[in-house]
Amino acid sequence: MLEIENCCLAVVDVQGKLAQLMHEKEKLFSNITILIKSAKLLNIPIIWCQQAPDALGSTILEIVELLPEINPINKTSFSCCNEPQFKNNLLRLNRRDIILCGIETHICIYQTAADLQRFGYQPCVITDAVSSRTEFNKTAALDKMKTMGINICSTEMILFELLKNANHENFKQIAKLVK
Predict the structure, then answer these.
(1) Which domains does the chain have, with CATH numbers?
(2) What is the pTM of this model?
(3) SS3 label, residue 50
């Protein structure tokens, strides 16, 4: 079970025209928004990455507006773990459970999750907050990560796992976000 004090949220590459091509993009954007708002309520640190923004464009506005206090980490490597600033942020935060959302599941999310696991972190991929251009590629990546022992769950699963019970001070606010 994940604990709030051990978690970090990584928002990966939800950018430009590519984001608009994602399978079930409305659900994807909505769930990423819920995760970001919930992380802020729970004081879970957020790391925000962008893949080659000069080529792919900036992160979509609905996410940028939620992260005014955070500077994105620009990268060219598919795995966020190959970007020194990302690794330095993880070391500074000293949190072992990394919640992953963003695109594309079969490229940047998969490679980041695999590297996080290899480096001793516990990645948790949020199945309804990641996507690819095709459902097939998303499913293939989730299946492979599952066989690797990477934690796969949904937005609501992870949020209520973190809250533990209805007595949590942020329960009502988070429950409103998911309804």
Answers:
(1) 4-178 (3.40.50.850)
(2) 0.96
(3) strand
